[in-house]
Each structure stands twice: as C-alpha cells, then as structure tokens.
Fold these 3 entries.
Entry 1:
Amino acid sequence: SSLLRHARSRNYVSESEACKLESVPLDFGDYHPLKPITVTESKTKKMNRKGSTSSTSSSSSNSLMDPLSSVLDGTDPLSLFAAAADPVTTAAPTDGARRKRDKDESSAVGSDFEPWSNKRGDILARYTTTEKLSIVSGFYRFFLFVPEGKATTTGSAVSEKVRTRLEELDDLEEGSQKELLNLTQQDYMNRIEELNQSLKDAWSSDQKVKALKIVIQCSKLLSDTTVIQFYPSKFVLITDILDTFGKLVYERILSMCMDNRVSLPDNFSPESVNDTAKETCLNWFFKIASIRELIPRFYVEAAILKCNKFLSKTGISECLPRLTSMIRGIGDPLVAVYARAYLCRVGMEVAPQLKESLNKNFFDFLLTFKQIHGDTVQNQLVVQGVEIPLYLTLYSPAIDWILQCIAYHAPDVLLTEMMERCKKLGNNALLLNSIMSAFRADFIAARSMDFIAMIKECDESGFPKHLLFRSLGLNLALADPPENDRLQILNEAWKVITKLKNPQDYINCAEVWVEYTCRHFTKREVNTVLADVIKHMTPDRAFEDAYPQLQSIIQKVITYIYDFALLFSVEKFLPFLDMFQKESVRVEVCKCIMESFIKHQQESTKDPVILNALLHICKTMHDSVNALTLEDEKRMLAALINGFIKMVSFGRDFEQQLSFYVESRSMFCNLEPVLVQLIHSVNQLAMETRRVMKGSHSRKTAAFVRACVAFCFITIPSLSSIFTRLNLYLHSGQVALANQCLSQGKA
C-alpha cells in the first residue's frame, strides 16, 4: 500500500486564469463583430510593385485600427474587391442590356458555323509542292518605343531603359541576317514549327521583343510568292504562329488585370481594366504601328485585334474598317485576298456581329478582281510555269472562307445582291464556285437553273467548268431543287461531265451527281449513270486510281436503293462491282452491301437473283480470310454471313432449304461461327418438319430428317472448340431423338 500514489488535487479555474493572455481594454463604441462593414469610400492608388493596385477603405467604425489593414498598407481584399466592383455598380441601370448584348454576341457564331480548324488539314494536304523553298531569317528595326509596363516620363531612367532595349535588339540581330535556301516542303514546315516554338520559348523567358521580332519575320514570309502553288499552305502555317502570338499577348494583358487573384469576367468593360494593363496594351499597339512594312504591320495588328477590348468599347469596330482599307495597299491580288481572309477570320472570332466590315472586305475584293487577269500576274505565272486554271484554284480557300463568314445567317437579300454583283464581272467562274461552296444549300438549290446559266457563260480557259458543276452537285445533295427542273438540271450537268477526258476529273464529278440521281430518279437513270462510269473508268484500268470515289458511289446507291430486288435488277450494278480488283477494297465494299441488306431487309427471301448475288458477295468476304486475319475481323465477317443465312427461307420447300445450307457449308467452311449457325439452322429445319408432320413422319420426311441429323453429325467434328462441339452434339442428339432417329441420336 505504501507504493500507491494518489493524483494531486487541481484547481482548474485558477490555472486557466493564470495562463490566459494579457487582456487590453478597448473602447469598442458601437462595434459588434457580426455587424456588417459598410464601405464608404474606395480609392485606388499605385503601389511600388509594377502591375498591382491598392485601396483604402473606411467602415462605420473608423476609430478601430484593423490589424490586417496595417500589415497590407490598407489593401485589404474586401476593399480591393469593392473597388473592382465599383464600375459595375455605377453602371447598374444598363447592366441588363449589357448582359443581353454579350449573350447575343457570344451566340452569334454557333455550332453550324464550320470553324477554320476544319479547313486547315485539307489546305495543307491539297496545296503541296516539290520545288525548293527558302526562308529569309532577317529581323526588323522599330522606331523607339516605350518599354512595356512603364508610363511615358522624362528622366534618365527611361533613357537607360531605351538604351538597354536597343542593345537587346542589336544583340539579337547580330548574325541573324541569313537565308535558308533549297528547303524541301517538309524542311520548310519543320522550320516554321521551330519558329513557333522559338516564339513560345522567348515569351516564357520574358523576351517580349524577341517574340515580336519572330512574329514580324514570319509575317513577312506571306509577301513571298516565289513558289506560288504552296502559298495557301504557307498561309496556314504562318497564321498559326500569329494566332499563338495574339493569344499570348491577350493573356498577358488579362493577367495584369487581376487584383488579388480575382480575374476579370469574360464580358468585362474597359472601365474594369486598370491603368497599368491599358498602358501595356497601348504599348503593344505602338510597337506594331512602328513596323515599316505594310504586310507584317497588318498581320501582327490583326493578330492582337482582340486586345482592343481593354482600351475601349468601340476599339474593334473602329479598327476593322481601318485594317480593311490597309489591304488596298497590297499589290499582289493573291497576297491581298489571303490578308482579307485572315481579317475575316479574326473578325468572326472577336466581333462576329460586325458584319458590315466583312461585307466591305468582300466588295473591296470585287473591285480589285480584274487584277487577277492583269499583265503583272500573267507575267509572274509565265516565269513560274503555272497555268491559269491552277493559279485560280489557289484563291478558293480564301474566297470560300470570306464568303462563308459573310453568308453566315445572312438574309437572302444580301446573298442575292452579292450573286448579282458577281454576275456583272467577267471571267467570274472562280467567284461563282466560291459562292456555291459558301452559301446555304437551299439558296443555291432554289436557283439551280440560274447558276447553270451562269456556269454556261463562264470562260472554259479559266476555272474548269466541271468543278463548277461539282460544287453545284454538292449543294443539290443537301437540298432539293424545284421538281420541274430536276431532269433538266441532270441533263445539263451530265452533258458536261461525260465529255471529260481525264478520268480523275470525271470520277470526282460523277461521284457527286450519282447521289442526286439516286435521290430523284428511277433505276433507269441510275443504270445509265453507272454504265457511263464503267465506260470512262475501265480503259487503261483507270479505276485503280479511283477506289475511294467508286466506293462512295456504291455507298450512295445502296443508301437510296435498299430494296435489293430492285438493286440487283439494275443491270450495271454487278459489272460495277467487278471494277474493285484490289482485294481489301473489294471486301470493304462487300461488307457495306451486306450491312445494308441486314439493316433494310425486313422479310425472308428466296429470290434467286438476290441469293446468287449475295452468295457471291459473301463468298468474296469468306475467301479474304487467311492466317493473318484478326479475330475481330473474322467475327464481323461471320456475323454478316450469318445475318444473310437467317434471312433465306424457301417456305415449305424444306429440301431446297437443306440444299442451300449444304451449299453454304461448302462455301464458308473457314468461319466456325457460320458452321455453328448452319448446324442450328438445320436442327431448326428438322424440328419444323416434325411440327408440320405433327410428330408422325412419313417415309419421305423420315428420310429428310435423317439427312438433317447426318448433316449435323458430319459437320460438328470440324469445329475446334470442345465446348461448342459438346453443346452441339447435345442439341443435335435431342433433335434426333425427338424425330425418332434413334441410331443417329445414339451415335
């Protein structure tokens, strides 16, 4: 017991009082911790740190010193937030109207507007060259400009900054004047990509001047048309760099508008932007305005057009007409039209509601359209050995894009006016093609005969007429013309198409017009078109270079003619299939036909024409299977063949049905799922015979049932899967016993 120890007695109240922090009496007045703070004044003042702002505020309890305010030099977060919100508060009466306008602007371009990114890959793939290219890696000098982020003041500090910046320019220019010659197209594209990466690297390392110089250098390449057939692809590559630059500048200025990690809303007003961000934004525009050459000055300013939002509400609407007028100073019509396309592209991104500037852009182009056929351009084409039809196709991506921007949600009155203006121009095939590519399909289809009349008047030596008819056909595949004009439209188009000597030109047009024929006409007209295609594509095995177009034709035919009795009665359909000599392509076509049959065939068939044709098609698919064929491919082919087998029925002619299954077994012996399906089908046939005979077989039906059981008995051993064989033996044995075939069932 002497080892037991007791806990000492504790006075917790007195200990708690002794450990408390020393309290200092304060005169709170009417202060209460839950009482809301009322901001009565908010002033923004410049901090020593660049790009930040501070505020001071007073509450209803001015006598109390806030410890957070003393630490932050009066810049408590709530006051900053209130200061940032102040312009919005003062504009409260018009807030609803602004929200409505912003909503309208954001919804001006919807999902039905095809973005530039969709066209980019096609342009790069289409406009290629085997000629050697060059890049001049020269840089530019600007006039003196104010260093970024600093207001214009007098004194030695600014002079020192300017001197430092100019030294950076000189260092950057040393050794940079060089020309990279004899580049292949891939080398050229790689070099452009390197410049794009250099731009990002320079920006991330805070070398803004170097980044700007790279962009100017790249923009100047757009004035070079020495390899003219590559120009559209070059435009795509260079404008990617310009887009990157524009995004970097915008995000840089936007980040300067953040106060205490609170960024500006998407639909901010210029009043919400602090002075530092505005000065920086102006500084960028001043730098760009100092570029001496027109083309880089235009492109770089267009790239940062969105930054006008930081300066004023009307900045973009004022800049667009000025930039449109600047393009008038570009002498080369090809360079000018792509500059207009870039301005439309930027304009649709930042201010799609300003359609007037886009319309003015196009009408300016119409005024200068005659330059395309002038002596200067003709001499340039002679030097480069480029034919005028090829040269005119270089304009298509730019004009198509300009017209797409203008035609988006445009009223018919405007579209009609533009169509009439183009009508008045001579040699207007290029414009006509772009109009048919960009305008709404229903607008074109309703005026099909007018467009055909305009196509007839076009000069054949310029833009090829067959391309015009192809563009018209693409529209008629999407919208129906007036019913009374349909046959005349087909006759007018096919008169031109059938005269084409070049198989590739021919098949590109025929592919489009086959769909129009299938939609609006009978099998007679479809047969005529298929016969004409066979006639043009068979000589010199021209079909070998046109498998994608021929596949497309088959796809369109079976899309619109899915009654296979009618399809196989088209005399030239099977001869058309014979043009698919390449096995892989032939199998793909057969799969398309079988998928269509399984999808659309509602009732069982025993039509010998359909059966013979589809057996031939299924045999083609089966024979493509070899040791290298993937299991997924085998499963797909087997599923298609099984779908066909299930749709074949000879009704009460059970012997004919069994003969079909025997023939199918010999034709599709390499696909086990098909053999399994055949065994199940034969078992079902035997049970159907039993049902018809009500369980009491005659001598003839008993022999037939034994034949069915024998079919299963000799087919099952050829299967490789043990469990599949066991299941089928079980099922077949049950069928045999049900039909009194005891010896076969026992076996």
Entry 2:
Amino acid sequence: KMAAAAGAAAAAAGLWSEVNRCGQNGDFARALKSVNKILQINKDDVTALQCKVVCLIQNGNFKEALGIINTHTKVLTSDVIAFEKAYCEYRLNRIESALKTIQSASQQTDKLKELYGQVLYRLERYDDCLAAYRDLIRNSQDEYEEERKTNLSAVVAAQSTWEKVVPEDLGLREATYELCYNSACALIGQGKLNEAMKKLQKAEELCRQSLSEDSDVTEEDIEAELAIIHGQMAYIMQLQGRTEDALQLYNQIIKLKPTDVGLLAVIANNIITINKDQNVFDSKKKVKLTNAEGVEHKLSKKQLQAIEFNKALLAMYTNQADQCRKLSASLQSQSPEHLLPVLIQAAQLCREKQHAKAVGLLQDFADQHPANAAEIKLTMAQLKIAQGSVTKACMILRSIEELQHKPGMVSALVTMYSHEEDIDSAIEVFTQAIQWYQQYQARTNHGCCVFQPKSPVHLSLVREAANFKLKHGRKKEAISDLEELWKQNPKDVHTLAQLISAYSLVDPEKAKVLSKHLPSSDTMSLKVDVDALENSHGATYVRKKAGKLTGDNQQKEQGQGEVKKKKKKKKGKLPKNYDPKVTPDPERWLPMRERSYYRGRKKGKKKDQVGKGTQGSTTTGSSELDASRTASSPPTSPRPGSGAAVSATSNVIPPRHQKPAGAPATKKKQQQKKKKGAKGGW
C-alpha cells in the first residue's frame, strides 16, 4: 500500500509539473488533460478543481466551468472561486447573477473590483460604474492603467449619450485612438458634431499609426478596426443632413463584413431610418442584420428599443398590419408610458382608414398617462384636421392647459378659427391668453419675481389681438386694447399711430386730439445720410424719371401736344440674290412641291413620288399615279386649304386615298429583302 501511495504521489507530482509547464506556455487544452488525470487520483483536490475551471475558462468553455463550480460547492466555496464564478456568469450574459456573486464575496480583490465595474456598465448603472473605476485608478499601479482610463472615458460617453449628462473634464490625455473615440462619443451626446468629427479623424489617424507598426497586421485588419470609427463618422453625417455621404459610408462598412454584430445592427438600423418609407426592399434586407444572434448583449436598452420601433414602422410601410400591431403591442407592454408604440398603432389604424378608432386609442392613452397627454392631444388634433373637423381639432387643442397661453398655440387656434369664420372664438382665444399672462404677472410680482410687470409676450399678444379685431371690424374692442398698450408705454409712437388710425374710423374728433401727442417732424431725429441716399442707384433712377416728366409737362404747357415715341421697327433681312427690279414670286411662301410650276426631280424618274408634301394636299403629278381614274369619273370637290396648290387638276384624289400602281411588286421586293436579312437570326 505504501508503495502504491508513493507511486501515486510521484505520478501526481509529474502531472503537476506538466500542468505548470503547459500553463506557462498557454497550452491550456493539454494542461486540462493533466488536471483530469490528477482528479482521477483525488477527485476532491481543491487546487486541481480550481485549475480545471481556469483551463476551461481559458478555452472558452464557460458553461462547463460554471457547471463544475456549482457541482463542487462544498469544496469550491465562494471565498476560493468567487472571481471565476462571477466571470463565467458575466461571459454567459447572466449579469444580475454575476453582480450577486461579486457582492456576496467576503473579500473584494482587485480582480473582483475590475469585474464589478464591467458588470455595472452592462447594467447601465453609470454613476456607480464611474465611482468604481475612479477608485480603481486611484488605488492601482500596474500596466493596465491605460485600459482603466479607456473604460472610465467610455462610462462618461455613455452618460452623455443615454442620460444627457454634461460630462466632466477627466483630464485624460488622449494618446490612444480608443480615448479619442470615446471623447468623440461624449461630444455627440452634447450635440457638438463638428468637434466630434475632428476627434474621430484624430482617432482614425492614431489607429492607423498604432496598427501599422505591427508588421503582421494587414490593410484589411486595419480597415476592420477602423469600421467602428467610420460608423460613428457616418452617424454624424446623418445627423448633419448629409444622408447620401452617410449612406455611402454605411454600405462600405457592411461590405467589409465586420465580425461585430452590434456594429452591423446599428448601421443597418441607421440605413433603415434614412430609407424611411422609400426603398423598403433594401430595408427588409438590412433588418435581418438587426436579428443576428448576440445583438441584445452588445447594445444598450435604448439602442435595442430604437431598433424595435423601426421594425414596427417598417412593418407598417410594407403593409404588414398584423406584424406592426404585434411589435407595437410588445413595445407598449415593455414601456407602457412610452409614446411611440401607441403612435405607431394609431398610424396603422389611419392607414386602414379607421380614424375614429385611432383617435379613441390616443384618447385612452392620454387619460391613462396625463404626463404625456399634451403630445398625444396634438396628434389627435392633427388627425381631426386631416378629417376636415377643424372645430373639433380646436376643442382638443384648447384642452391642453399647459399650452393654451403659448404664442404658437394662440396663433394656430386663431388661424383655424378664422378659416372657419368663427371670429368670436378667435377673439376669445386672445382674451384667455392675455388674462393668463396678467394673472401670471400678478403671481410673480407678489413673490418678488425679477420679471417686469408686463412681459414682452403679453404686450405682443395684446397688439396682435388689436390688429385682428381691427381687421374684422371690432373697432371699439381694438381701441380698448390699443389704449392699454399706449398706457404701458406712452412714448410708443407706433401704438399711438395705430390708436389714431382706429379712432379716425369711429371718433374723428378724438383722433385729432390724440394726434397732438405725435412728435413734430423737427423733433424726430432721422439718422439718414442724405447725400448717400441721393447718390444711390434707386434715387438716380427716380431723378431721371422725374426730369423726363418735368420736360413733358413743359411741352404740354407750351401747347406742343403729346409726343409719343414710336418704336423703330427693324428692317427684315433680304435674301442675297434679291433683285429689286424683279417682282417677287407670289407662291414663294409655299413648299416647292406645292407650287404650280414644279415639275419634279430630273433624276430618279422611275421612283414613284407618292405621299410628298403636306398631309391632305395634292400635286400636279399625282394624276399619273391614279390607276382607278377613268375619263368618265366625275370631278371631286377640292379639299379645304388645297386651293393654292391645285391648278387645273382639282379633281385628283388625295394621296392618302389613292393606291399607287406597282405597289404589290414593291411589297414583294421588301419581303425578299427581309428574308435575306433574317439569316442572322434574332
């Protein structure tokens, strides 16, 4: 027994040496075989089990490694193998489980802290993630500092993009293309597109320099690495409205066939948004890229949600009504408070001509989610206008309390009521908006607000109301508004002029009294350069015209009468062979074939001259071709308009009725020619 035990110990020692050597060489498949032999000797060897888990992780067998950890829980406790277990769960996209494993560990090692930061990033808990990486950078000094800074910049970029948080300056030196790329993403989130484009160009340059130093890296490898940078460049172009350039760059990236399924999904989605309701066949091809395996683990929740929205819209554009309803209903169940799913459903109903049902759907959503009621009601009003129910649309708009006083809403309502010739309702809209501003100013003044007693918006509404009332014959009401405006600013000459104009229609005496408040021309300082004005092009033209008019008036006073200038007619060009002594040919306006003295061509007499000249006209030589004509044939009446071309032979049948002699023979010749030419085949 002792000899057997000694032999087993010696064998185990040899196997451990093999495991150590293979581990140093990176040959984990061979190391795993040796570890399995050790476990045959002692199945509960903690070190051997831990080595087996590590070998499986290095070979990418995360599921098998996690199975061994869960099978040997008594031996492999959380203190011993917490990192390996959490890492396997992280790589298997069990992010919540990985977080629990990390938090349950008794000792938080540096490896666990690194993994904790990655887990928080995947869970989109960016504030906690930022704090974790800051702590790591502060308390770590090793060769991985650059990677930690890159991860930190990625967190800041995600906050700027998805949470619209203004990123703080981390003071990171952008020496690598990864840091430049993340900085560009943060700038895109802030809307600084031009600066972001410059950062991406710098990132591209740094990437090329970095990869070109390695002789084993090919140009294809460099382009594959640059794909994500080019994709972000194309996105900026798309945001700037340069859709053709963006589309071209997107398609170039797709042709490279990058292995990153997340990148391909985002590019395909962006192409679909450019296509919209056009080029739907291309969009249907691209949407397949968004369904690739593993996409859901590569993108953020908002990116995945945007892709699903676009799938629903594409289904609507391709007339897949059931698919559209299914996708939008699924989106609504995931995000009940989100506007887009219900808007897509309403749009689909409108395409099916079910406008009433669409309005009812929107109304139900507005009742259930008052916070989003304003946007929904605006859509409802648009649908009512499309149906021609302008008055109902106005009622819906007026029910949006938070927008009633807005100048844009007031303008829209007044325009719509004017279109319906409902002037009283339009004036009521003005009155309610003015009263709202009066009450608002009263509240803010009581609370010692810094606003002026009358805001510019309020005064502008009063002025617009007065103009509207004057236009529609409500003069007294307009005068009341204008007087209120003038009291607010007695020095406002424009308002005073309007008030005088209004009073002149109702009370001329009052208008005269008010006109005394107008400033005299002497007191008005018009900062006008008279010399420059007189020397301008327009003034010179007016002066010349005035001088001409003065001269004409003087002529009238002298009794010379009006002198009308006659336009000189240009002399027509005469032909080169024109002879003034010879009388022009009276038939020179007619085509040569229709003239009475035309005798045909000298050459080619054998060829039949059939169908020459204008349609319906005849020639003198056409009688020779009339085979059906006999001496006893009665004369036919001449065709209208052919009198100038017909001389003595006015009884000739028009060319389109005649049957030329020899036509059958000609037809045979043509057929023979066709047969000869048909040898080549079609």
Entry 3:
Amino acid sequence: MARALFRLQKFLRRTQFLLFFLTAAYLMAGSLLLLQRTRLVVQQGSRGTSANQALPVLDGMPGAGMVDPRTLQKPRQGPRLLVGMEALQEPALEQWHSPRWLVSRNLELRQLRRRWFHRFISDQEPMQTVGFRAMRHTAEHKGTYVGCFSDDSRERTLKGAVFYDLRKMTVSHCQEACAERAYALAGLAYGAECYCGNQLPASAAKPEECNSECKGEKGSVCGGVNRLSVYRVEELRAAARRRRNVTYRGCFRAPENLTDTFPASLLQPNLTVEMCCEFCSKKEFPLAVIPGQECYCGYPTERFPLRHGADGQLCSAGRAGYCQVYQTPVQDTRCTDRKFLATKSKVFVALSSFPGAGNTWARHLIEHATGYYTGSYYFDGALYNKGFKGEKDHWRSRRTICVKTHESGRPEIEMFDSAILLIRNPYKSLVAEFNRRYAGHLGYATDRAWHSKEWPDFVNSYASWWASHVLDWLKYGKRLLVVHYEELKQSLIPKLKEMVEFLNMTVTEDRLLCVENNRDGNFKRSGAKQKDFEPFTQEMKDLIDKYILTVDEALRERNFTGLPREYVPR
C-alpha cells in the first residue's frame, strides 16, 4: 500500500513538472510568433502608406476586404483602414486588451501572413480618390471611352454577355471579348466584371464614382460599386469579325408561326448567312434562323427547342417548313443571373464526386438552372476568379443551393442531410484529375508528366479512392440522388430536371433551354490534346476493372441503376 502511494505521489510530481514545462514552452512559442508577425506588419507598413494617409474602404466594396470568410465567419461592421496592402480594423481603445480583440487580432495577423507569402494581392501604391483621375481611360486601349454610368444588377442594360476574372481583368480583355461577340459596347464594374451590349445605360454617373482599379492592370479604371466604365468597341469589330465564332447548329423543322416564335426578323433580297448572323448579333440574339430567303432571330424556346434535327438535305434543297439554324457569338443571358439564397437553407445538400468527375461542370449547370450559387468545401481561387462566387462563402453558411465536396468517410458524409452523388467512368476521371493537377482546370498534362513515375503511382492510389468514395456515400448517405456523368451529358435536360427537383427548386422550360444553349460554359480544356495515346497498362486496367465491378454491385444492392455499360470492362 505504501509503495503504491509513493508511486502515485511520484507520478503526480512528474505530471505537474511536465505540465509546467509544456505551458511555458507554449507561451514562449506564442510570444515569438506574435513578435514575428508584429515585425512583419511594421515592415509592410513602412513599405506602404502611412497611417495618416490611409484610404477609408467600405465593407460592401468587392475585393476591398481582406478578411477571409473561412476564418472570420462574422465580419465586423464599420470602416476599415487600408494600410499598405492589408485592411486592418481599428479597435476601440477600451477593447484593445480584451480576449475577444486578441483573438480577432491574431486571426487578422494570421490572414496577413498567409496573404504575404502566397501573394494573393500584389503590392499597390497608395491611391487617394483624386488619384483615380490620373488613371488611364484611352491611352493604351483601342476602344473609345464613353463615360461612367450607373448599373442596376436587377435590370442591366449591358446584358448581352457577362465575364468574370477577379485576378486578371483588363480593359483590353473586356473590349476584345465584347468585340468578338459582335457587341458595340463594353462595360466594366467592380474591377473584375465585364458586360457587353449595344445600348448605353440610361443613367450617367459622376466620373469619380468609377474608381475601382482593374484587377489585372494597374492604373486603369474598371468601373466601381454599381458603376460601369463604358467603352465603344465598334472600331474593333471589323478586325474581330474574322475571328468571330458562328456555329452551324443544323437543319430543323420550322415552327408554324415564325413571327410569333421569333422576336426579330429581316427580309432582304439576296440574303446570305453572314448578313443574317450579323443582323441577329446586333439585335443581341443567340440564334439566327434562315428558312429560305428570310432571316429570324431569337432563343431556343418550347416552340423551338432544337432537340430533334432533320436531314440537312431538306434545308439544302430549300424544302418548305425547314430552316437552317446558326449560333451567333451572342451569349444567351436568360439564365446567367445568380445570387445567394435570401434565407438559410433548411436542408444541407452536398454535390459529391470523385475528383475529375465533372463536379465543376455540374455546378455550372445547377447555378444557371436555379439562379443560385453553389458552395464548396474547399477554397479554389481559380474557380472564384471565374465567377463561382460561392467558393469564397463559408461552406456551412447554407447560403448556397448545394456544396461541392470530394470528401468521403462517415463524419464528412453524415453532416449533410442529402447529396447528389455524381459518378464518372474511372478511366476518364483519373485522366481528368491528372490533367488538372499538372495543367489546371482547362489544360492538358505534358507527355513528360504522363511518362513519368508519377502517373503509375497516381493510378494505384486514386483508383481505390474512386471506389471507396462511392461505397462510403452509398453506406452513410442519408438521401441520395445518383447521377452518372455520361447520362447527364447525353440527356442534359431530363437529368438536370431530376437534379433541380431533388434540390426542391422549380425552373421554367425556357431557362432549362438556356442552360442547354450554354451547356459547356467556359470549362472545355484547351491546348494540345494527345492523340492515339493509351496511358493505362494492362495491370492498371485489371485493377480498375475490379473496382468498377465492386461499385456496380454495390449500386444494384441499394436499388440504384448500375454503372453504364461503357464502364466495364475495357
């Protein structure tokens, strides 16, 4: 008994000493880290603007706030000071030493360090409001600057086409994009958004209200908050006409009443395809329809859905009741408006897939069909810069219609109330994900990457993940809608309707037709695609085919449709 008591006392003494030592080490490490961060702030402040030259920045100004919503889910209200390259809030004097302020300050310093090392935002010279007058409007731009105009997001005047680039937007890039799509005007807002059209906005604004610097061009104005910097690009259209993309959609049966179906028409002797497409482009319609020697402009609608094409010889022979259809460079904007949910969603929905299974494309379809942003479990700056604004929203905010995730495992799955499970052929998924890792979302990996040892290691590790991802969601998912990527691509409207209904949303047929007309978005890979190249060895195929059979069996056991036939075996 005495020996046991002695051992207990000895253990307690050692424990106390150990706890004291760990506490002291933790405090010393924290102090050193705080000193290092403070030194970083001082160094950065010395390189930027002094405190008495700071520029007030409104909380609502896009791109001005530097607080990441993933770290600060409840941004503080009130003005901030833009000091050098970072925005820091000035706390009240009585709060300086409160625990809440220390936590907030620590988060801001952590954010400062992250942005310093990863260079999310480049160093900017101090700019006062009057400094914007010196910004270039016409010096290096081919278009003619018209002026600053008010912009109403609910009813835009320049709504022919919409582009986002929250890192590299320039005036020239916007001008060229609008000119190539046959528009006469290009407007920029928030430093990163580009709008095209043919009619000037009705309400002019003060020149100094267009005060947002272009994200990709220092010293140039790209609109402001609800303000458009508008340029005429008519002089660029002649050069752009040679590069303009007009696509032949096919031969279709013409609707019974052409004038009721199409809002614009042109009757002209010796009509040509070029004349009709140019006319419809100026009228801001995505379709040019030519029955015989007449020209009509419009959209895909229930009366004219463009789903069942006819024999092309019927149009070539001038058969009555048939028409040729061309896709003009104009974007169909009936489904491009998107926003966050006004109230928090009661159902937490996941859009789950293995990497490379088309999750980004599915998000594009869902956002344009429903009109609401999708969220993401991750922060992908490249996707955010291209218009997926839900990327920067906290994934548990419930302000988005669904949340992208590649996670598997019981805890990560059970936190969602329901899920759309997107499955793609593993052979295609593995190739797509390998391309993404080595060349980004829209590029292709090089020959060197495919023939390196990285590819076999990638297949060995990722093939099993493809199977386990599906199996885990089938096992732990509470309410699932299984969607096969290949079926979604082949039967877009029916499958998209299923997804929208699963999300408890209702959409019009015309909006779905608009999505179909913009089905690819900006997500087709560019660059040199390898031809006649088989990256999979027989050993890899044997491994992948086993996983395919396992997943197919699991789907059927859960009363879901099995995998498409093209999956198994290769």
